[in-house]
Write a structure and sequence with these properties.
Blueprint lengths: L6 E5 L3 H12 L3 E5 L11 E4 L1 H10 L1 H5 L8 E6 L4 E5 L1 H8 L4 E4 H14 L3 E3 L4 E6 L4 E5 L4 E4 L1 E4 L6 H6 L7 E14 H7 L10 E7 L2 E8 L4 E9 L8 E2 L2 H6 L6 H9 L4 E7 L13 E3 L2 H4 L8 H20 L5 H30 L3 H10 L1 H8 L5 H4 L17 H4 L3 H15 L11 H13 L2 E3 L5 E4 L1
Parallel strand pairs: 1-2, 1-11, 2-7, 4-13, 11-18
Antiparallel strand pairs: 3-6, 4-5, 8-9, 9-10, 12-15, 12-17, 13-14, 14-15, 16-17, 19-20
InterPro entries: FAD-bd, FAD-dep_Monooxygenase_BioMet, FAD/NAD-bd_sf
GO molecular function, one term: FAD binding
Pfam family, one: FAD_binding_3
Length: 476
């Protein structure tokens, strides 16, 4: 292993950048995170943490830092705009299937937990450091901030979001994130005290549950935050034009979009005072996320922003960071080189991200279906709803084994490749597959020498004692 510790720089302190910082620091590298803002933080809207990333919060101890502000709801209900129950999912069943919970949390609470975890892992967090320029060669990467401060790294990760400076420098001719549909989002938070005081009938619905009302061309999503004291309100609707940038909208016009929907949901929307339409931007596939030297690489929205119909935008960025931590750990242990690690990251993550982008499109299309398509959708889940109505404890198991709910965003059995995924395990497997591919298998012992030789190199380089009984002893 090189005598100097691998130094990794991260440009951008969002969810993906912090996840990468934690994972890479845990792998044994030195990590410096540069954040443009004067304070590390996030806006306070809600976010969902499914099993593919809640497993990371558990492993890293972030769940304990956030505490009661991580909420596991009791039910996930999907209603028609006319109040008919269309689908229901039990998150406790999902936790049994995946091994990890489905949490909802405020973005700023999650961000604070990740930030504190990064600090505890020794990550150097430097705020007020907007990167202005980038120079990269085979041996190092140098960035200069707007204040004129220079930093030199062995590897730079661009996790600086949709308007990524790093992407623009690396790929000046690459496509930029674009609005791929007419769907716009509206987001806000209300206190339960205000909701129950002004809409008392809401108590019958909002019982530590996540509730979605889906209708022609739009949907409403409500779920609890902040240890159950706040209600997250997310609505989406198809406009009459492609929404490319945030736009102001008249409050009365916004409420009119849902004028024929469930009366309780409509009364809750009467309480919100936000009127800004947010575009749902998507970044077209890129041929590569890295420079020619494989020591500058993109992560998260800088590489693959997606629509939010699968609630996987931040989760995918966190997966990127965890995967990078896994392969960079092997660079630290001198198992593979840095360029090999980045190539594995791109080879493994790029097709998975594209699949997620497509799943998000499909999920949104299903939920906002109209006419005959909506009728067929509702008929498909009718047996599931009837099973719940008859108080069958495990309704999904009473249905044919081929059944998969069309409500993809929350049901792991419908999208196991997404919600069962373990980025750290995938990174380890990617490295093992790569090492096996580098040398032939011994026809007598059936051992791939590449893995065996690399294992001995790690043992010898780290001073590990192997006892005569074959067990690994303490370091020398």
């Amino acid at each position: 292993m090189a005598p100097n510790k691998l130094h990794v720089g991260i440009c951008g302190g969002g969810m993906g950048g912090l996840a990468a910082a934690i994972a890479i620091a845990r792998a044994g590298a030195k990590v410096t995170l540069l954040e443009a803002a004067k304070e590390l933080g996030e806006i306070g809207a809600g976010i969902q943490m499914f099993a593919n990333v809640s497993r990371l919060l558990v492993r890293w101890g972030v769940d304990e830092l956030i505490g009661d502000d991580l909420i596991a709801v009791d039910e996930i209900n999907t209603w028609g705009s006319d109040s008919e129950l269309l689908a229901r999912f039990d998150p406790k069943m999902g936790a049994k299937q995946t091994g990890f919970p489905h949490w909802v949390v405020r973005r700023d609470h999650l961000h604070a937990g990740l930030t504190e975890c990064a600090r505890r892992h020794g990550v150097e967090l430097i705020v007020g450091s907007r990167v202005q320029s980038l120079e990269h060669s085979k041996d190092s990467v140098k960035v200069t901030t707007v204040q004129g401060v220079q930093h030199t790294f062995d590897l730079l990760i661009g996790s600086d979001g949709i308007k990524s400076t790093i992407r623009r420098v690396l790929f000046p001719d690459a496509a930029v994130p674009q609005a791929a549909s007419t769907v716009a989002a509206f987001r806000g938070i209300l206190s339960y005290e205000q909701v129950f005081e002004q809409v008392p009938e809401a108590r019958q619905l909002l019982r530590n549950t996540m509730d979605a009302w889906i209708g022609p061309n739009g949907y409403i999503l409500l779920y609890p935050l902040s240890a159950g004291s706040e209600l997250n309100v997310v609505t989406l609707f198809e406009m009459d034009h492609v929404v490319k940038t945030p736009e102001d909208m008249d409050l009365a016009e916004f409420r009119h979009l849902y004028k024929d929907w469930n009366p309780i949901a409509r009364k809750i929307l009467e309480l919100v005072n936000y009127t800004q339409k947010w575009p749902l931007l998507v970044l077209p596939p890129m041929k590569t996320w890295s420079n020619e030297h494989k020591n500058v690489v993109l992560l998260g929205d800088a590489a693959h922003c997606m629509q939010n119909h699968m609630a996987q935008g931040a989760a995918t960025a966190m997966e990127d960071g965890a995967f990078l931590g896994g392969v960079i750990g092997e660079v630290v242990r001198d198992t593979i080189t840095l360029p090999e690690a980045i190539e594995l990251y791109e080879k493994r993550r790029m097709p998975r991200v594209w699949t997620k982008q497509q799943a998000s499109f499909v999920s949104g299309t299903i939920n906002m279906a109209t006419g005959e398509k909506a009728v067929r959708r509702n008929q498909a889940s009718a047996p599931e709803v009837k099973a719940w109505d008859r108080n069958i404890i495990r309704p999904i198991q009473m249905l044919p084994t081929t059944y998969r709910s069309w409500q993809m965003f929350c049901n792991p059995s419908s999208v196991p490749g997404i919600l069962y995924y373990d980025p750290e395990g995938d990174a380890d497997n990617a490295v093992c597959e790569y090492l096996q591919s580098q040398s032939a298998m011994d026809e007598t012992t059936l051992v791939t020498n590449g893995l065996w030789d690399k294992w001995w190199d790690v043992v010898n380089n780290n001073g590990i004692e192997v006892r005569t009984d074959g067990l690994i002893g303490a370091s020398k």
